[in-house]
Amino acid sequence: MSKQINPLKLLLAGLFLLLLLGVPAAHGRILPQPPRWQDKVDPCLLTTPATTAESNEIEFLLTLTAQADLSGADALTDKTAKGRYVYEQLTAVAQQTQPPVIARLQSLGAEYRPYWISNMIWVRGDASLLPEMAMRSDVAHLYANPQIALDVPEEDTAVIQSIAAWDNIGYVGAKTVWQMGITGQGAVIGGQDTGYEWSHPALQNSYRGWNGVTADHDYNWHDAIHSDSGAANPCGVDAPAPCDDHGHGTHTMGTMTGNDLAPTDPTWPGGAANPVGMAPGAKWIACRNMEQGVGTPATYTECYEWFIAPYPVGGNPLTDGDPTKAPHVINNSWSCPPSEGCNPDSLLNVVQAVRAAGIVTVHSAGNSGSSCSTVNTPSAIYDESFSVGATYSSDAIAGFSSRGPVTIDSSNRPKPDISAPGVDIYSSYRGGGYLSLSGTSMAGPHVAGLVALIISARPDLAGNVAAIEQIVQDTAVPLTTTQGCGGDAPDAVPNNVYGYGRINALQAIIDITLPYRYYYPVFFKE
């Protein structure tokens, strides 16, 4: 007698065979495939010469899966407490999770530099590192680290002159604020750029490392340039003192704090021959993120990290950082365009950490205008950055000033947030002189200087990034446009050309002092 076949067992056996053979199941459903390692790598890294056998070396930024939870900083009202909390959380996660990756990189003979600010490691080595690192479960993504040149507008002016073309500092009301006794005293401004000529007559007195007799650069200066590009570089690498191998950085800092008159002079600051800065009473600290105008996401990251917790020259970022020495605001007059290989998300965690630490991040919107959706580079594109467009002395938007909305990351985010003078801006320049330049790089420093004035007038606002940004926006001169970017109505404020308008330093200070008291998020008249 033949043995009867169980239909259920036959069906199960058939399904098992289909699974083994990888055949699609019923109704055409395709079984999920395991992720490819290439999906965790920036596409441009997969097409660089190093991955096409023309070279064996490649450079990238490795971001680990583990990321610190910084949400606890929101409940802290003191800026110092915010900074300490963020520093401790970020360094703890990095110390716990980076060692296995670093050990493997060491065994492979790769160069590396760890960063705790976003649990990231800069790596340079053989191209075979890409698949091995990407296949690790503790690695989230491998970002490209392209070399990015300064974004200079086509209509840029560079004119050496002895007098300013117009009084941009007075125009936004800063000089009247000085007469109220508010010059930026008590505030600290950070700048990351091509470097800074700290001994320039307009900058020396406001450098935090200068006491009037000697200089101490510990906690006041950091150089993120660790290898020479090969071109003649007067600053070298790992410069132990502030140095500018280009001139751009010295110009931007001048617009923030520049004044060539000694603070002990009874006519200071308005009586200076060159009162070029918004907040001459503020102190500045700085980080060089570009070598002769060329930076990378790694150097930008390193400077942001140093600002959260500055450490001595040659110090250890993990153990020597001091959040109490962090600035109140950081100016960023640089770009990282995706068109040159910069991933739009590459600096997002970094800037979020800076904001969590209670530091205002001011970023030039870019010089890719005049079309819509030309604000397209990190970190200007982020919600966490306060992005600045550039205006003429007439308040008309500069043709080169980038417009919103942001589409590069599919967010459709309105940008810029605010505008400031950015054409024919007279300021300090490398070599002890003065120069007029144009660009959103010149506009951003006006806003950073205004933040210093606000903190000087209301020290209790230090660390409250959202409140400070709202003050700047609410007191701006509203400006409208018919360009219609992002569907803006002709009378819309804010809009994707000017943001909330052109800054008004005098109105900002009036509104947060007498006869007003500012309570976030609205004004109440007493």
Write the layout of secondary structure elements.
Blueprint: H1 7-21, H2 43-46, E1 57-64, H3 79-97, H4 99-107, E2 111-115, E3 120-126, H5 129-134, E4 139-144, E5 148-149, E6 159-160, H6 168-171, H7 174-179, E7 188-193, E8 221-223, H8 248-257, E9 283-288, E10 290-291, E11 294-295, H9 297-308, E12 329-332, H10 348-356, E13 360-364, E14 386-391, E15 418-421, E16 425-429, E17 433-437, H11 440-457, H12 465-474, H13 505-512, E18 516-519, E19 522-525
Parallel strand pairs: 7-9, 7-12, 8-9, 12-13, 13-14, 14-15
Antiparallel strand pairs: 1-3, 1-4, 2-3, 5-11, 6-17, 10-11, 16-17, 18-19
Helix pairs in contact: 8-11, 9-10, 11-13
What's the helix count?
Answer: 13
Please give the largest β-sheet.
7 strands, parallel
Strand content: 15-25%
Question: What is the fold-level CATH name, i.e. the topology of the largest domain?
Answer: Rossmann fold
User: What's the CATH H-level superfamily name of the largest domain?
Assistant: Peptidase S8/S53 domain
Q: Helix content range of the residues, please?
A: 10-25%
Number of strands: 19
Strand line-up across the major sheet: 8-9-7-12-13-14-15
Radius of gyration: 26 Å
Task: State the end-to-end CA separation.
Answer: 103 Å
Highest CATH level, the class of the largest domain = Alpha Beta
Q: Spans of 5+ residues with little confidence (pLDDT < 50)?
A: 7-28, 50-54, 518-526
Mean pLDDT: 91
CATH architecture of the largest domain: 3-Layer(aba) Sandwich
